[in-house]
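Sanity check record (used in CI):
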Amino acid sequence: MGLTKMTSLGRAPPQLVGGWEAGLLIFLALLYLGGIIVNPTFFGSTEALHALLRDTSRVGIIAVGMTFVIANKDLDLSVGSTYGLVAVVFARLFAPSFLDFDIVTSVILCMLLGTAIGLLNGVLVTILKVPAFIATLTMLFIGRGFVLAFTQGQAIYYSDKANENSPFFRLGETNALGFNNQIAIFFLIAVVGAHVLAQTRWGYETFATGGNEQAAAYAGINTRWVRIRAYLLSSLCATLAALLSAAQDKGVTPLYGVGWELTVIASVIIGGASILGGRGRVIGSCLGTAVVVLIDKVLREGWPITRTVVIDGEKIAVGAKFTLPAGAVLVFLGLLLVIAVLIEPFLIRRQAAARFWAWLRRRPPPPAPDTGGVALEGVQTKGAMATDTALSATGLGKFLARRDALAIILTAVLWLTGLALRPDYWWNLSNTFAILLNYTELAIIAVGMTYVIAAGDIDLSVGSVLALAGSTAAYFLKVLGAEPLTAIAMGLLAGSAAGLVNAAVTVGFKLPAFIATLGMFYIARGLAAWFVAGQQLTGWSEGYNLLGRKMDDVFLHFGLELPPGVMRTVAEVVSVQTIWMFFVAIIAGIVLAYTPFGLKVCAAGGKLRAAAYAGINTNRVRFISLMLSAVCATMAGIINVAYFRSFNPVAGQFRELDAIASVIIGGGSIFGGYGTMIGSLAGAAVITLVRALLQLNVQGFTMPQHWINVFIGVILIVAVLIDIWVRQANIFGRLRERIARGARTGEGIHG
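Expected output for ABC transporter permease:
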C-alpha cells in the first residue's frame, strides 16, 4: 500500500490583525490625503488629526463592544441611545441645578444604568427570545424618549462644578504629552478587547456561538451567557464613551448619540466582521471606525470655495466654504451601512483582494469559498403556529380563540376608558373623528406592514419613507409651484423608489430586511431634510389640501352645499383620508385573506424554504410586500402634508415603532406566517387610543409627549412577548394542560 500524500492546510488565519486591516490603513491614508487636498486649511493641520483621533476614540470604544455582539450573530441598535441616556443621566445627577450628586456617586449610578441596559437587552434576546433587532430597536426609541424627557429639549451644563472635580474631567482634556486622554483610554480598551477576542476563552466562545450556536451548545458552551455577556460589554462600552463625553463637554444636549448606532455598526462591518457571525477583529473595527469618522468629518467640514459678490457695482471675490445641505450626511451614512454589509459577501467571503493579488503575480487563485447568501437568522426562524382551539371552538369561544381578539377587545376597553374619563370630550362626534384622523395615518402604514411581517420580513423605514414622500410633494408644491396632481405623482415616485431599493437590496442582494430598511431609515430621512433644507414648508394651493379635508369642505370647494340632515352631519366629520384608508384596507384585506397571493405571503413567512419547494416564487412575494409597505407609507406622507397644510422634516418619527406594534398587537406573528387586516387595524386603533388617552387632559394633568413614546416602546415589547410566549409557545395552553394532568393524577391516587 502506497504512502498517502498529506496536503498542507497552510498557515492559520491571523486572529489579531491581517491583510484586511492593512488595506484599511492604506485606504485611511488615501482618504486623509483627499481631505487635505479638498480642505487644506482644516485637514492640513495637526489639530485636525488630533480632533479626528479624539472623536474616533469615543465611537471606537463603542465599536469594541459591538464587535463581540456582531461576532455572536446578534445586533445592538440601542448603543446610540444608551450613550445619550447615560450622558443625560450623568448631567442630571451631577449638575447643581438638578440633583447635585458628587462625582463618584454619579459615575457609579451611570455604570449601573449601563449594566442594566445591557442585561435587559441580553435577557430579551436570549431568554425571552425577542429578535435582536426588535429588542434593541425598541430600546433605542425608549432611550431616546427618556433623553428628550429628561432634557425637555434643552442643553444641561455644569462647567463651574466640573472645575472643582478636575481629576475626572481631565479624562476629556489634553495631557502633558500633547494628546487627549480619550485617545489613550481608547488605545487601552482596543488592546484589551483585541486580546480577549483573539487570545482568550471568551473569544473562542464568542466565535463558536456566532459560527454555529447549536454546535457550540453541544460542545458545552453556555451560549445564552455568551450572548448576554456581549450585550453587557456593548452597553458598558457605550457607557464609558458617554462618561468621556461628559468629561470633555462639561454638559450635554438632547442630540447626544443620535445616529451613532449606524456609525458603529458600519464601522464594525467595514472592519471585516461578518453580519453572519463567527468572524470579527477588534483592530479591524477600530480602523473601520477611523474610516467612518473621517468620511463624516470630510462631509461635514466641506471644502473652501470662492464666491463673487457685487458691492456698489463692484465684483469682489470672497472666500467661503461649501458644506452639504441638511440631511446629506445621514444619506451618505445610510448608504455606507448598506455598502459595508455588502462588502462581507462580495469582497471578504469571495477573497477578492487575495484573488486580485494572485492574478497580479500570475499564480492560481485561492480556493473559492462558499458564497451563499447573507440572510441573517432572526425573523424567519420559525413559523406561526395554527390556533387549533379556534377550529374547534364555537360561539364566544371561537371569537376569543382568534389571534386578533385581544386587539379588538382592547380597542373597545380603551374607548370606554376615554368615555369614562372625559365624557364631555370623548362623546363629541367631531372629537371622535379627530381621533380617527390621527388613526388614519397609522392605519394606512399598518396595512403595508401587515404584508411585510406576514411574509417574514420587517420594514424599519416606513416613517422615513413617509417623510421622503411628504417632502417631495411639498418641494414641488412650494418651491417649483407644481400642480397638485404633479406633486402627488412625484411624491408617489419618490416613496416607491425607496421601496424599490428596499426590495431590491433585500431580495436581490439577499441582505436581511432589517439591515436594508435600517439603511433606508437614515437615507430617506436625510433626503427628506435635504429637499427642504431642514426647514418647514407651507403655503400652496388649497386644491392639494383637499386630500386631508372633511367631505363637507370638499363639496364646498367645488360649490356644492349639502342640505341639513344626516348626510351633511356625516360629511362634516368624515374626511377624505379616512374614506381612502378604509378603501385601501378593504382591498388589501381581501387580497390577504381570500386570494392565492395572500396565501403565498403567509406561506413564505411561515417557512420560506418549504414555500419555495411548493413552487411559490418567494422572492417575488417578498419583493411585492416590501413595495406595498413603501407605497402605503408614501400615501400616508402625501396625506400628512395635505392634512397639516405644511411639511415638517420630523414627520413620521416613531411611526415604524407604532406600525410594528399595531401588527403584533393585532395578532400578526413577529416570526412571519400570519396576519389579518382586521387585527392590524384594531392594533392601530389600540396605539392611537393609547396616545389619545395619555394626551387627554384629566383634571389639569397631561402626559408629556416624550413619555408617550417610552410608553409605546414598552407596549411593543409586551406585544412581542405575548406573540412569542402566549401565541407561539402557547404557554397558557401548556399550563392548563399541566394543571389538568395534575388533577387527573390526583384523582387516580385518591381513587
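The longest strand covers residues 303-311. If this sentence no longer matches the regenerated C-alpha cells, the check is flagged for review.
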